Amino acid sequence: MSACVFPGSLKNEVGMVSLEILKKFDIFSNMPSDKLKHISQQARLLEFSAGEVLARKDDPALNLYGVVRGEVQLSLPVVCRLLTADIHTEKGEPDRVQTQGKQMMIDVVEPGEICGWSAMLDDGRQTTNLTGSKPGQILYISAAILKDMCRKDPLTGYELTNKLLQVVSDRLRTRTKNLVETWGESFEIEGE
Predict the structure, then answer these.
(1) Is the CB of residue 63 less than 8 Å from the CB of residue 143?
(2) Dihedral of CA 107/110/113/117: which sign?
(3) Residues 88, 83: Cα–Cα separation, whole Å
């Protein structure tokens, strides 16, 4: 398992984020120019490689991320228990079960899309692992900076929150669809 790329790490940081890059993200599309300029001055770009872990599930969520180039996979760690032999104990329980840790793919975040929305919640925790699936660049900005901006300007806060809720809603729909497909395959259930 590769190490996390922690924002601020000079090894992977490649610079500030231009206004042109920010404008490519729907979440910032209607933001007043002075707020956009402030975000641009605070946000940073990181380069990542395929397989590089950017954040882990349940870690403190401190930053909002946006994929500039490449792809980031959202996944959940799961434990699979596999029967390795068709032998049962006297109680009818499997005798040999192999436990295996795996990553269940939830979604793929592409250029112009954000992830790490849970950072905008008080005491937020990462809801998924964020791993580079194709090499690229990701921007990040401290959620504390965005929250402060939202407190100082409620209209901007409303706009930002509305866009974040759309992201959360889309991710929830994707998770539900994937869950129904997985259950359908496992238990021969057909979805609507």
Answers:
(1) yes
(2) positive
(3) 10
